[in-house]
Amino acid sequence: FSSLKFQEGERTVRWNNLFPPDRPLIFFLIYYKCPSICNTQLNSFFKAVNEYGLLPGKDFELAVLSFDYKETPELADKKKNAYLQEFEKAGKKPEFHFLTGTKENIQTVTDSLRFTYYWNEKENQWVHPTGAYVYSPDGKFYRKVGGAVFDPKTLYFTLAEIQPKILKNVFDRVKLYFSKYEQVTGDYKIHVDRIFNIVMPILLIVSGIVIFSKLFRIMRNKKFTP
């Protein structure tokens, strides 16, 4: 992947340059002329991000690539600016990439992610998977999350597993510690084993204190019985 290049406006961006050393990357494969599902999932994603006060370019890196090699950088910029304006209305200054590429480079990415798509002549649109691909700062694939709709907590906890500093408070740290990602359902559930490992020693200690106290009272009563 190190040799892959994409176009962002008038400049060229290498795949490796999408990975800052201090935050994870969220990567989308969509196409900008999509009349439905692509807009739905991006809108849902940004809504989930805003719910937890996360900011692209600060808490994570965001890159969106069109899998349609015929789409132009101008079209990508138009889509990017539409989302930038929404952030700016809220007084925020995010940074993210909306990219285009050559057929060969795009295919390298889609093949590696097993991202299959085809053109539906009847509906005049691409049929393709949904969701976002999450990478760690060292460029290793971590997990695919979401779909047409994103669960805010799942997105938040996934990013926090890679970069804990994005957790907003101690309560979120506790929640994440006692949660576990379930691959089948695609969300976080209560981590029963972890709760058991924490609770059982506490119960044993409390039980020991109670038993010791009772034995102590019994011995003391016998000692002072005439």
Structural description of this entry:
The protein is α+β, with helices and mostly antiparallel strands and 226 residues long. Helix content is 41%, strand content 20%. The protein has six helices and eleven strands. Strand 1 and strand 2 form a beta hairpin. The radius of gyration is 25 Å and the shape is elongated. The N and C termini lie far apart (88 Å). The mean pLDDT is 89.
Structural class: alpha+beta
Provide the low-confidence segments as ranges. none
Mean pLDDT: 89
Q: What is the string of SSEs from the N terminus onward?
A: EEEHEHEHEEEEHHEEH
Break the fold down into its secondary structure elements and pairings.
Layout: E1 5-8, E2 11-14, E3 25-30, H1 37-51, E4 61-66, H2 73-89, E5 97-99, H3 103-112, E6 118-120, E7 125-127, E8 132-135, E9 141-145, H4 152-162, H5 170-177, E10 179-182, E11 187-190, H6 192-223
Parallel strand pairs: 3-4, 4-5
Antiparallel strand pairs: 1-2, 3-8, 6-7, 8-9, 10-11
Helix pairs in contact: 1-4
Fill in the keyword field for this structure:
two-stranded antiparallel ribbon, 226 residues, 6 helices, alpha+beta, 11 strands, five-stranded mixed β-sheet
What is the structure about, briefly put?
This protein is α+β, with helices and mostly antiparallel strands and 226 residues long. It has 6 helices and 11 strands.
